[in-house]
Amino acid sequence: MHSEPYLLDPSPDGVHVLWHTDEPATGAVLLPGGRRVEATSSTLVTLHDDQGVRATVHRHWAYVDGLGAGRTPYRVVSFFADGRVAESPDYSLAPAVAPGAPVRLLLSSDHQMWPMTPANLAKVAETVGVELDGVLFAGDMVGVPDRAADWFAHPTGRGFFASLTGRADTVIAGRHYRGAPLLQHAPLFPAIGNHEVMGRRARHRTPQDLFDDPAPDAWDTASYEALFPVPAGPDGPRWWSRTVGDVFVVALFVTRAWRDAVTTYREPADRVGDPMGGQFLFERIDAGSPQHEWLAGELASPAAREARFRVVLFHHASHGLGAHVLPAYTDPVATADGYAYPDDIVLRDLAPLFGAAGVDLVVNGHSHLWNRFRDDNGVNWLESSNVGNSYGAYPHRGDPGGLEPIVPTRAPLTGPAGEPLPYVADNDVTVFSVLDSAAAVVRSYRFDTREPDGPVVLFDELPLD
Description:
about 475 residues, Calcineurin-like_PHP, six-stranded mixed beta sheet, globular, signal, Immunoglobulin-like, Metallo-depent_PP-like, alpha+beta, about 15% helix, PAPs-like
Protein backbone atom coordinates (compact mmCIF):
# COMPACT_ATOMS: atom_id res chain seq x y z
CA MET A 1 0.00 0.00 0.00
CA HIS A 2 1.15 3.48 -0.89
CA SER A 3 -1.84 5.67 -0.14
CA GLU A 4 -2.61 8.91 -1.86
CA PRO A 5 -1.65 12.03 0.10
CA TYR A 6 -4.12 14.16 2.01
CA LEU A 7 -3.84 17.75 3.19
CA LEU A 8 -4.46 19.13 6.68
CA ASP A 9 -4.45 22.50 8.46
CA PRO A 10 -2.96 25.05 6.07
CA SER A 11 -1.08 28.01 7.51
CA PRO A 12 -0.39 31.42 5.91
CA ASP A 13 2.59 29.96 4.03
CA GLY A 14 2.27 26.19 4.30
CA VAL A 15 0.21 23.04 4.66
CA HIS A 16 0.59 19.57 6.20
CA VAL A 17 0.85 16.61 3.78
CA LEU A 18 0.27 13.07 5.07
CA TRP A 19 0.21 9.62 3.46
CA HIS A 20 0.66 5.98 4.49
CA THR A 21 2.46 2.80 3.48
CA ASP A 22 2.03 -0.79 4.66
CA GLU A 23 5.81 -1.31 4.88
CA PRO A 24 8.48 0.78 6.62
CA ALA A 25 9.68 3.55 4.34
CA THR A 26 11.04 7.04 4.26
CA GLY A 27 9.19 9.72 2.34
CA ALA A 28 9.33 13.18 0.89
CA VAL A 29 7.19 15.78 -0.84
CA LEU A 30 8.58 16.86 -4.21
CA LEU A 31 7.96 20.42 -5.41
CA PRO A 32 8.89 22.46 -8.49
CA GLY A 33 12.48 23.59 -8.89
CA GLY A 34 13.88 20.43 -7.34
CA ARG A 35 12.70 21.35 -3.85
CA ARG A 36 12.24 18.36 -1.56
CA VAL A 37 10.61 18.34 1.90
CA GLU A 38 11.43 15.29 4.00
CA ALA A 39 8.64 13.55 5.89
CA THR A 40 8.72 12.28 9.44
CA SER A 41 7.76 8.59 9.45
CA SER A 42 6.18 6.63 12.30
CA THR A 43 4.20 3.45 12.92
CA LEU A 44 0.51 3.66 13.83
CA VAL A 45 0.05 1.25 16.74
CA THR A 46 -3.73 1.32 17.24
CA LEU A 47 -4.82 0.01 13.82
CA HIS A 48 -5.67 -3.70 13.54
CA ASP A 49 -7.27 -6.23 11.22
CA ASP A 50 -10.67 -7.83 11.87
CA GLN A 51 -9.15 -10.48 14.16
CA GLY A 52 -7.32 -7.96 16.32
CA VAL A 53 -3.85 -8.47 14.82
CA ARG A 54 -1.94 -5.23 14.59
CA ALA A 55 -1.92 -3.87 11.06
CA THR A 56 1.30 -2.58 9.53
CA VAL A 57 0.54 1.04 8.75
CA HIS A 58 3.26 3.65 8.60
CA ARG A 59 2.45 7.36 8.57
CA HIS A 60 4.52 9.89 6.62
CA TRP A 61 3.98 13.51 7.60
CA ALA A 62 5.62 16.56 6.04
CA TYR A 63 4.96 20.23 6.64
CA VAL A 64 5.51 22.13 3.41
CA ASP A 65 6.14 25.81 4.13
CA GLY A 66 7.49 28.73 2.14
CA LEU A 67 4.52 28.63 -0.22
CA GLY A 68 3.41 31.67 -2.12
CA ALA A 69 -0.13 32.60 -3.02
CA GLY A 70 -1.98 30.31 -5.41
CA ARG A 71 -1.55 26.62 -6.06
CA THR A 72 1.75 24.75 -6.27
CA PRO A 73 2.17 21.34 -7.94
CA TYR A 74 3.47 18.54 -5.72
CA ARG A 75 3.75 14.79 -5.45
CA VAL A 76 4.79 12.44 -2.67
CA VAL A 77 7.36 9.67 -2.89
CA SER A 78 8.12 6.72 -0.59
CA PHE A 79 11.49 4.91 -0.48
CA PHE A 80 11.57 1.30 0.72
CA ALA A 81 14.55 -0.60 2.13
CA ASP A 82 14.77 -2.96 -0.85
CA GLY A 83 15.22 -0.06 -3.25
CA ARG A 84 11.64 0.20 -4.47
CA VAL A 85 10.21 3.67 -4.95
CA ALA A 86 6.50 4.54 -4.97
CA GLU A 87 5.49 7.92 -6.32
CA SER A 88 2.11 9.61 -6.55
CA PRO A 89 0.78 11.55 -9.52
CA ASP A 90 1.06 15.34 -9.47
CA TYR A 91 -1.50 17.22 -7.39
CA SER A 92 -1.75 20.80 -6.13
CA LEU A 93 -1.54 22.37 -2.70
CA ALA A 94 -1.90 25.89 -1.35
CA PRO A 95 -1.40 27.80 1.87
CA ALA A 96 -4.35 29.02 3.91
CA VAL A 97 -6.72 31.36 2.14
CA ALA A 98 -6.03 34.91 3.28
CA PRO A 99 -8.40 36.19 5.99
CA GLY A 100 -11.33 37.99 4.40
CA ALA A 101 -11.02 36.25 1.03
CA PRO A 102 -13.99 34.19 -0.25
CA VAL A 103 -13.90 30.40 -0.05
CA ARG A 104 -15.75 27.29 -1.22
CA LEU A 105 -16.11 24.56 1.40
CA LEU A 106 -17.62 21.10 0.98
CA LEU A 107 -19.88 20.12 3.91
CA SER A 108 -20.00 16.36 4.45
CA SER A 109 -20.20 13.60 7.06
CA ASP A 110 -21.13 9.97 7.78
CA HIS A 111 -19.35 8.24 4.89
CA GLN A 112 -18.79 4.92 6.75
CA MET A 113 -18.22 2.89 3.56
CA TRP A 114 -21.90 3.24 2.61
CA PRO A 115 -22.80 2.36 -1.00
CA MET A 116 -23.52 5.81 -2.41
CA THR A 117 -20.46 7.56 -0.97
CA PRO A 118 -18.14 7.18 -4.02
CA ALA A 119 -20.95 8.34 -6.33
CA ASN A 120 -21.56 11.31 -4.05
CA LEU A 121 -17.93 12.41 -4.16
CA ALA A 122 -17.65 11.82 -7.89
CA LYS A 123 -20.57 14.19 -8.38
CA VAL A 124 -18.96 16.75 -6.07
CA ALA A 125 -15.92 16.79 -8.36
CA GLU A 126 -18.06 17.01 -11.51
CA THR A 127 -20.14 19.87 -10.08
CA VAL A 128 -17.67 22.10 -8.20
CA GLY A 129 -14.23 20.61 -8.96
CA VAL A 130 -11.59 19.28 -6.58
CA GLU A 131 -9.60 22.45 -5.91
CA LEU A 132 -11.80 23.53 -3.02
CA ASP A 133 -10.63 25.55 -0.03
CA GLY A 134 -11.55 22.84 2.44
CA VAL A 135 -13.72 19.88 3.35
CA LEU A 136 -15.64 20.40 6.60
CA PHE A 137 -16.46 16.92 7.90
CA ALA A 138 -19.00 16.53 10.73
CA GLY A 139 -17.87 13.11 11.94
CA ASP A 140 -18.43 9.38 11.38
CA MET A 141 -15.76 8.77 8.78
CA VAL A 142 -15.67 4.97 9.16
CA GLY A 143 -17.41 2.12 10.96
CA VAL A 144 -14.68 1.14 13.44
CA PRO A 145 -11.77 3.58 13.81
CA ASP A 146 -9.18 0.99 14.90
CA ARG A 147 -9.92 -1.24 11.88
CA ALA A 148 -7.27 -0.41 9.29
CA ALA A 149 -9.36 -1.61 6.35
CA ASP A 150 -12.04 0.98 7.10
CA TRP A 151 -9.54 3.70 6.29
CA PHE A 152 -7.56 2.20 3.44
CA ALA A 153 -8.58 -1.08 1.80
CA HIS A 154 -12.08 -2.06 2.88
CA PRO A 155 -13.50 -5.15 1.12
CA THR A 156 -16.33 -3.02 -0.25
CA GLY A 157 -13.79 -0.83 -2.07
CA ARG A 158 -15.14 2.18 -0.16
CA GLY A 159 -12.59 2.89 2.56
CA PHE A 160 -12.56 6.48 3.82
CA PHE A 161 -9.38 7.55 2.06
CA ALA A 162 -10.19 5.47 -1.03
CA SER A 163 -13.39 7.41 -1.66
CA LEU A 164 -11.95 10.84 -0.87
CA THR A 165 -8.84 10.30 -3.00
CA GLY A 166 -10.48 8.73 -6.05
CA ARG A 167 -9.42 5.13 -5.42
CA ALA A 168 -12.79 3.63 -4.48
CA ASP A 169 -14.56 1.16 -6.71
CA THR A 170 -18.27 0.51 -6.38
CA VAL A 171 -21.01 -0.16 -8.92
CA ILE A 172 -24.54 1.26 -8.79
CA ALA A 173 -27.03 0.78 -11.63
CA GLY A 174 -24.23 -0.50 -13.85
CA ARG A 175 -21.98 2.54 -13.33
CA HIS A 176 -18.56 2.37 -11.67
CA TYR A 177 -17.81 5.15 -9.19
CA ARG A 178 -14.35 5.81 -7.77
CA GLY A 179 -15.01 8.83 -5.59
CA ALA A 180 -12.78 11.81 -6.36
CA PRO A 181 -9.26 13.11 -5.63
CA LEU A 182 -10.49 15.75 -3.21
CA LEU A 183 -8.10 15.47 -0.27
CA GLN A 184 -5.01 15.62 -2.49
CA HIS A 185 -6.03 19.18 -3.36
CA ALA A 186 -8.29 20.41 -0.53
CA PRO A 187 -7.45 20.32 3.20
CA LEU A 188 -9.70 18.30 5.49
CA PHE A 189 -11.17 20.01 8.55
CA PRO A 190 -12.72 17.19 10.62
CA ALA A 191 -14.84 16.88 13.76
CA ILE A 192 -15.19 13.73 15.85
CA GLY A 193 -18.30 11.54 15.57
CA ASN A 194 -19.24 8.53 17.65
CA HIS A 195 -17.59 6.28 15.05
CA GLU A 196 -14.22 7.88 15.79
CA VAL A 197 -14.30 6.68 19.44
CA MET A 198 -13.10 3.29 20.69
CA GLY A 199 -14.02 1.50 23.94
CA ARG A 200 -12.44 -0.63 26.66
CA ARG A 201 -9.13 -1.87 25.23
CA ALA A 202 -8.29 -4.23 28.09
CA ARG A 203 -11.46 -6.29 27.68
CA HIS A 204 -11.54 -7.15 23.98
CA ARG A 205 -9.43 -8.42 21.12
CA THR A 206 -11.25 -7.51 17.92
CA PRO A 207 -11.78 -3.90 16.83
CA GLN A 208 -15.52 -4.43 16.48
CA ASP A 209 -15.94 -5.75 20.03
CA LEU A 210 -13.76 -2.96 21.35
CA PHE A 211 -15.76 -0.33 19.51
CA ASP A 212 -19.03 -1.77 20.82
CA ASP A 213 -18.00 -1.49 24.49
CA PRO A 214 -17.14 2.07 25.55
CA ALA A 215 -17.44 3.09 29.21
CA PRO A 216 -17.52 6.56 30.75
CA ASP A 217 -13.98 6.10 32.07
CA ALA A 218 -12.65 3.92 29.25
CA TRP A 219 -12.75 5.27 25.72
CA ASP A 220 -10.29 6.98 23.40
CA THR A 221 -9.85 8.66 20.03
CA ALA A 222 -6.26 7.48 19.51
CA SER A 223 -6.61 6.30 15.91
CA TYR A 224 -8.42 9.48 14.88
CA GLU A 225 -5.76 11.64 16.50
CA ALA A 226 -2.95 9.73 14.78
CA LEU A 227 -4.57 10.07 11.36
CA PHE A 228 -5.65 13.70 11.85
CA PRO A 229 -3.16 15.26 14.28
CA VAL A 230 -4.00 18.76 13.08
CA PRO A 231 -5.90 21.09 13.32
CA ALA A 232 -5.41 21.08 17.07
CA GLY A 233 -6.70 23.19 19.93
CA PRO A 234 -5.99 23.17 23.68
CA ASP A 235 -7.00 19.48 23.95
CA GLY A 236 -5.24 18.39 20.79
CA PRO A 237 -7.33 17.54 17.72
CA ARG A 238 -10.55 16.94 19.70
CA TRP A 239 -11.70 20.53 19.29
CA TRP A 240 -10.18 23.45 17.44
CA SER A 241 -10.86 26.73 15.60
CA ARG A 242 -9.46 28.18 12.39
CA THR A 243 -10.07 31.11 10.07
CA VAL A 244 -10.57 29.85 6.52
CA GLY A 245 -10.69 32.93 4.29
CA ASP A 246 -13.74 34.93 5.37
CA VAL A 247 -15.18 32.04 7.42
CA PHE A 248 -14.37 31.39 11.07
CA VAL A 249 -14.77 27.67 11.80
CA VAL A 250 -15.08 26.03 15.22
CA ALA A 251 -15.09 22.23 15.50
CA LEU A 252 -16.44 20.68 18.70
CA PHE A 253 -16.34 17.23 20.27
CA VAL A 254 -20.09 16.74 20.68
CA THR A 255 -21.01 13.09 20.44
CA ARG A 256 -21.86 10.20 22.74
CA ALA A 257 -21.83 6.43 23.11
CA TRP A 258 -23.98 4.78 20.48
CA ARG A 259 -26.85 2.52 21.47
CA ASP A 260 -29.59 1.38 19.11
CA ALA A 261 -32.20 4.11 18.98
CA VAL A 262 -35.80 4.18 17.85
CA THR A 263 -38.14 7.03 17.01
CA THR A 264 -39.47 7.06 20.58
CA TYR A 265 -36.33 6.28 22.54
CA ARG A 266 -36.32 3.35 24.95
CA GLU A 267 -33.22 1.59 26.23
CA PRO A 268 -32.84 -1.96 24.84
CA ALA A 269 -34.04 -4.54 27.36
CA ASP A 270 -30.65 -6.23 27.71
CA ARG A 271 -29.11 -2.96 28.91
CA VAL A 272 -31.64 -2.07 31.58
CA GLY A 273 -29.71 -1.83 34.84
CA ASP A 274 -26.32 -1.84 33.09
CA PRO A 275 -24.44 1.24 34.38
CA MET A 276 -22.71 1.46 30.98
CA GLY A 277 -25.96 1.03 29.07
CA GLY A 278 -27.05 4.58 28.51
CA GLN A 279 -25.91 6.94 25.79
CA PHE A 280 -23.35 8.73 27.96
CA LEU A 281 -21.51 11.80 26.69
CA PHE A 282 -17.87 11.35 25.78
CA GLU A 283 -16.82 14.95 26.43
CA ARG A 284 -18.49 17.67 28.49
CA ILE A 285 -19.93 20.64 26.60
CA ASP A 286 -22.35 22.05 29.18
CA ALA A 287 -21.85 25.51 30.68
CA GLY A 288 -18.81 25.58 32.95
CA SER A 289 -17.02 22.70 31.22
CA PRO A 290 -13.54 23.32 29.75
CA GLN A 291 -14.81 22.85 26.19
CA HIS A 292 -17.72 25.27 26.71
CA GLU A 293 -15.50 27.92 28.28
CA TRP A 294 -13.00 27.58 25.44
CA LEU A 295 -15.83 27.83 22.89
CA ALA A 296 -17.21 30.99 24.48
CA GLY A 297 -13.76 32.55 24.30
CA GLU A 298 -13.27 31.56 20.67
CA LEU A 299 -16.65 32.95 19.58
CA ALA A 300 -15.82 36.24 21.34
CA SER A 301 -12.33 36.44 19.79
CA PRO A 302 -11.32 39.09 17.25
CA ALA A 303 -10.93 36.35 14.62
CA ALA A 304 -14.56 35.31 15.06
CA ARG A 305 -15.92 38.84 15.24
CA GLU A 306 -13.99 40.01 12.17
CA ALA A 307 -14.93 37.07 9.95
CA ARG A 308 -17.77 37.54 7.51
CA PHE A 309 -19.30 34.19 8.56
CA ARG A 310 -19.10 32.00 11.65
CA VAL A 311 -19.59 28.22 11.27
CA VAL A 312 -19.75 25.66 14.08
CA LEU A 313 -19.09 22.01 13.18
CA PHE A 314 -19.99 19.01 15.34
CA HIS A 315 -21.50 15.58 14.95
CA HIS A 316 -24.61 15.20 17.08
CA ALA A 317 -27.72 16.94 15.73
CA SER A 318 -30.21 18.27 18.30
CA HIS A 319 -32.48 19.76 15.63
CA GLY A 320 -33.65 17.21 13.09
CA LEU A 321 -36.21 14.82 11.69
CA GLY A 322 -33.98 11.74 11.78
CA ALA A 323 -34.24 8.84 14.22
CA HIS A 324 -30.85 9.57 15.74
CA VAL A 325 -31.79 13.02 17.02
CA LEU A 326 -33.29 11.14 19.98
CA PRO A 327 -32.83 10.87 22.92
CA ALA A 328 -31.97 14.37 24.14
CA TYR A 329 -28.26 15.13 24.21
CA THR A 330 -27.54 14.81 27.92
CA ASP A 331 -26.27 12.38 30.52
CA PRO A 332 -28.52 9.34 31.04
CA VAL A 333 -30.32 9.09 34.36
CA ALA A 334 -31.03 5.53 35.52
CA THR A 335 -34.70 4.66 36.05
CA ALA A 336 -36.53 1.49 37.02
CA ASP A 337 -36.87 0.36 33.42
CA GLY A 338 -33.95 1.99 31.63
CA TYR A 339 -32.70 5.55 31.37
CA ALA A 340 -34.21 9.01 31.14
CA TYR A 341 -32.71 11.88 29.16
CA PRO A 342 -34.28 14.94 30.77
CA ASP A 343 -32.70 17.91 29.00
CA ASP A 344 -30.77 18.70 25.82
CA ILE A 345 -27.43 20.35 26.60
CA VAL A 346 -26.88 21.50 23.02
CA LEU A 347 -30.19 23.37 22.98
CA ARG A 348 -29.85 24.61 26.56
CA ASP A 349 -26.19 25.67 26.70
CA LEU A 350 -24.93 25.97 23.12
CA ALA A 351 -27.81 27.40 21.08
CA PRO A 352 -28.06 30.64 23.17
CA LEU A 353 -24.28 31.04 22.93
CA PHE A 354 -24.44 30.65 19.15
CA GLY A 355 -27.19 33.23 18.90
CA ALA A 356 -25.38 35.77 21.07
CA ALA A 357 -22.13 35.32 19.11
CA GLY A 358 -23.76 35.72 15.70
CA VAL A 359 -23.08 32.19 14.48
CA ASP A 360 -24.40 31.90 10.94
CA LEU A 361 -24.38 28.13 10.46
CA VAL A 362 -24.23 24.99 12.57
CA VAL A 363 -23.26 21.88 10.57
CA ASN A 364 -24.17 18.47 12.00
CA GLY A 365 -24.27 14.83 10.94
CA HIS A 366 -25.39 11.58 12.61
CA SER A 367 -28.91 10.95 11.27
CA HIS A 368 -27.98 10.29 7.61
CA LEU A 369 -30.40 12.71 5.99
CA TRP A 370 -30.66 16.28 4.74
CA ASN A 371 -32.73 18.82 6.63
CA ARG A 372 -32.31 22.35 7.82
CA PHE A 373 -33.78 24.75 10.35
CA ARG A 374 -33.45 28.38 11.43
CA ASP A 375 -33.90 29.34 15.07
CA ASP A 376 -35.25 32.55 16.58
CA ASN A 377 -31.73 33.98 16.89
CA GLY A 378 -31.13 33.63 13.15
CA VAL A 379 -28.79 30.61 13.45
CA ASN A 380 -29.10 28.11 10.61
CA TRP A 381 -28.83 24.40 11.51
CA LEU A 382 -27.96 22.11 8.60
CA GLU A 383 -27.52 18.37 8.45
CA SER A 384 -26.32 17.21 5.04
CA SER A 385 -25.39 13.62 5.87
CA ASN A 386 -27.56 11.73 3.33
CA VAL A 387 -24.33 10.73 1.58
CA GLY A 388 -24.22 6.95 1.48
CA ASN A 389 -27.42 5.65 3.03
CA SER A 390 -30.28 6.93 5.17
CA TYR A 391 -32.03 5.73 8.31
CA GLY A 392 -35.19 7.61 7.35
CA ALA A 393 -37.02 10.77 8.39
CA TYR A 394 -39.92 11.11 10.82
CA PRO A 395 -41.69 14.38 9.99
CA HIS A 396 -44.82 13.35 11.91
CA ARG A 397 -42.76 13.44 15.11
CA GLY A 398 -41.40 16.89 14.38
CA ASP A 399 -38.16 18.47 15.53
CA PRO A 400 -37.51 17.74 19.22
CA GLY A 401 -36.16 21.27 19.48
CA GLY A 402 -39.50 22.73 18.35
CA LEU A 403 -38.41 24.29 15.05
CA GLU A 404 -40.18 23.97 11.72
CA PRO A 405 -38.09 22.30 9.02
CA ILE A 406 -37.44 24.48 5.99
CA VAL A 407 -38.63 23.19 2.62
CA PRO A 408 -35.84 23.31 0.00
CA THR A 409 -35.98 26.53 -1.98
CA ARG A 410 -35.26 25.26 -5.50
CA ALA A 411 -36.34 21.69 -6.24
CA PRO A 412 -37.60 19.72 -3.23
CA LEU A 413 -38.41 16.07 -3.50
CA THR A 414 -42.12 15.37 -3.23
CA GLY A 415 -44.24 12.93 -1.25
CA PRO A 416 -47.00 10.56 -2.39
CA ALA A 417 -49.53 13.37 -2.79
CA GLY A 418 -47.09 15.68 -4.56
CA GLU A 419 -46.34 17.68 -1.41
CA PRO A 420 -42.83 19.18 -1.16
CA LEU A 421 -40.72 17.39 1.44
CA PRO A 422 -38.55 19.33 3.92
CA TYR A 423 -35.91 16.62 3.92
CA VAL A 424 -34.00 14.10 1.82
CA ALA A 425 -33.83 10.65 3.42
CA ASP A 426 -33.28 8.20 0.61
CA ASN A 427 -31.05 5.21 -0.15
CA ASP A 428 -30.98 6.00 -3.89
CA VAL A 429 -30.62 9.80 -3.82
CA THR A 430 -27.34 11.13 -2.47
CA VAL A 431 -26.81 14.72 -1.30
CA PHE A 432 -23.89 17.12 -0.87
CA SER A 433 -23.66 20.76 0.20
CA VAL A 434 -21.15 23.49 -0.61
CA LEU A 435 -20.66 26.76 1.24
CA ASP A 436 -19.84 29.53 -1.26
CA SER A 437 -18.92 32.55 0.83
CA ALA A 438 -18.56 34.87 -2.17
CA ALA A 439 -22.24 34.34 -2.93
CA ALA A 440 -23.15 34.12 0.79
CA VAL A 441 -25.00 30.87 0.25
CA VAL A 442 -24.91 27.15 1.01
CA ARG A 443 -26.00 25.21 -2.05
CA SER A 444 -27.30 21.67 -1.65
CA TYR A 445 -27.33 19.23 -4.56
CA ARG A 446 -28.87 15.80 -5.07
CA PHE A 447 -28.17 12.98 -7.49
CA ASP A 448 -30.38 9.95 -8.13
CA THR A 449 -28.01 6.99 -8.45
CA ARG A 450 -30.73 4.95 -10.20
CA GLU A 451 -30.23 7.25 -13.19
CA PRO A 452 -26.47 7.32 -13.79
CA ASP A 453 -26.83 9.64 -16.78
CA GLY A 454 -29.25 11.91 -14.96
CA PRO A 455 -28.46 15.42 -13.74
CA VAL A 456 -27.07 16.69 -10.47
CA VAL A 457 -29.93 18.85 -9.19
CA LEU A 458 -29.45 22.05 -7.18
CA PHE A 459 -32.40 21.65 -4.83
CA ASP A 460 -31.76 24.18 -2.06
CA GLU A 461 -30.01 27.48 -1.47
CA LEU A 462 -29.52 28.60 2.12
CA PRO A 463 -28.74 32.34 2.26
CA LEU A 464 -26.19 33.31 4.92
CA ASP A 465 -26.58 37.11 4.80
